[in-house]
TrEMBL record:
GO cellular component assignments: plasma membrane
InterPro entries in UniProt: GltS (IPR004445)
Residue spans crossing the bilayer: 6-25, 37-57, 69-86, 93-112, 159-185, 256-275, 287-310, 316-336, 348-371, 383-407
Gene Ontology molecular-function annotations: glutamate:sodium symporter activity
UniProt KW ATP-binding keyword: no
GO biological process: L-glutamate transmembrane transport
Membrane topology, record value: Multi-pass membrane protein
Protein name: Sodium/glutamate symporter
Alphabetical UniProt keywords: Amino-acid transport, Cell inner membrane, Cell membrane, Ion transport, Membrane, Sodium, Sodium transport, Symport, Transmembrane, Transmembrane helix, Transport
Recorded name of the encoding gene: gltS
Role this protein plays: Catalyzes the sodium-dependent transport of glutamate.
Record family assignment: Belongs to the glutamate:Na(+) symporter (ESS) (TC 2.A.27) family.
Compartment list: Cell inner membrane
Pfam families documented for this protein: Glt_symporter
Length: 411
């Protein structure tokens, strides 16, 4: 028997899951060390409880799909609204080269996943799920495409499979990035560890000194938002979602038909750059970040609440094989392609650690990897400029394009 939570109960349950996740992350060193998000930690516990209840008594629950979808669209709109094309000049040719490197890896990642799935006698789409959809895309993209693959391509349990793969990638991305960069730094003698005198964690920095992207290097710095810019930002999100809904209906059946979340992301890009680039309207990045991250947390909690882990029983073995191969592929690519293409210097080693982070997990994992390296060996402003620009927006757009092309012309 299945119970469906309405929007109110879904929101209450999601908040409980987030509070549980926060408690677990604060109490368990492993979760904190590898930057496991609170909704993932709490949501997996909820999913395991749901599995036990289903196996023992036959009951299951599903959350409000409308509310869940809305939060997902807000998250992707926040990615688009964070894309300031004027910052491309700051990234320079290094950003372009890194984007090409990342785009090439997305193709490799999907080739490995779909190839192994075919060899193991599975639907190639399962390999796509255990490829860039979940590993490069993360939990948000896993949830978005999981729903599409379940409803439009008949892949039963795609959402559960996606969440499991994304969680694995998040952990592994945080494990391999730092050690790989340290190996490269030591092998090529690119830098030496900082002394205690070099590091001053108590130093104070003004907003003008920090700049817009440097806060990733100084995570303890607090940035504030106000009610006025929060309301304005909510209006921007509403405009993005309205654009996404309109374009989804308008493009249906056309050659340019895309999932709704891609239109939400694209709408954010267009709106951000028209308002800021042409009309000179100030955009409040801090408010966008707050709402985007809140929406992602609530969406993930809702998605994990409705996970049906019993649907993964037959795929457990093959999934482990595919994800193990993906881990090896990521490490080799970062060491022999990313590091070398980006210059075989200290910045390139930090970038390789960052690529492992969002190539297997998410941008926060990439930033955490780089912080672990720069805390020991010194700053890398180039890496902290390029990786957030790439990981927070461009990689999702490239990934969505590659996946869409595969679904249209390959599968």
């Amino acid at each position: 028997m299945e119970f469906t939570f309405n929007a109110f109960y879904t929101l209450i349950a999601a908040v409980i899951v987030l509070l549980l996740g926060r408690f677990l992350v604060n109490k368990i060193d492993f979760l904190r060390k590898y930057n496991i998000p609170e909704p993932v930690a709490g949501g997996l516990v909820a999913a395991i409880i749901s599995l036990l209840v289903h196996n023992l008594w036959g009951y299951s629950i599903s959350t409000s799909s409308e509310l869940q979808t809305s939060f997902m669209l807000v998250f992707f709109a926040s990615i688009g609204l964070s894309a300031n094309f004027a910052k491309l000049k700051e990234g320079g040719i290094g950003l372009v080269i890194f984007l090409i490197c990342v785009a090439s890896f997305i193709v490799v990642q999907n080739f490995v996943g779909m190839g192994l799935a075919t060899v193991l006698g599975l639907d190639p789409l399962i390999g796509l799920i255990a490829g860039s959809i979940t590993l490069t895309g993360g939990h948000g993209t896993a949830g978005a495409w999981g729903e599409i693959l379940e409803t439009q391509h008949g892949i039963q349990g795609a959402l559960a499979l996606g969440m499991a793969s994304a969680t694995f990638g998040l952990i592994i991305g945080g494990i391999i990035g730092g050690p790989l960069a340290k190996l490269l730094i030591n092998r090529y003698q690119l830098s030496g560890p900082k002394t205690e005198k070099d590091a001053d964690p108590n130093s104070q920095h003004t907003d003008s000194e920090l700049g817009e992207y440097v806060p990733f290097e100084y995570p303890q710095k607090v940035r504030l938002i106000t009610a006025d810019n929060a309301i304005t930002t909510l209006g921007l999100f509403a405009a993005c979602l309205a654009f996404a809904e309109f374009m989804t209906g308008y493009s249906k059946g056309q050659w340019f038909e895309l999932p709704t979340f891609v239109w939400a992301l694209g709408g954010g890009v267009i709106l951000r750059n028209i308002l800021e680039g042409l009309l000179r309207v100030k955009i409040f990045d801090r408010a966008i970040d707050v709402f985007g991250n809140a929406a992602l947390s609530l969406y993930l909690a809702m998605a994990l609440l409705s996970l049906k882990l019993w649907q993964l029983a037959d795929l457990a073995g093959p999934l482990v094989v595919i994800l193990t191969a993906q881990t090896l592929t990521m490490a080799l690519y970062a060491a022999f392609v990313t590091f070398r293409v980006m210059g075989k210097n200290y910045d390139a080693a930090v970038l390789a650690a960052g690529h492992c982070g969002f190539g297997m997990g998410a941008t926060p994992t990439a930033v955490a990897n780089m912080q672990a390296i720069t805390n020991m060996y010194g700053p890398s402003h180039k890496a902290f400029l390029i990786v957030p620009l790439c990981g927070a927006f461009f990689v999702d757009l490239i990934n969505a394009t590659v996946i869409q092309l595969i679904l249209k012309f390959v599968v």
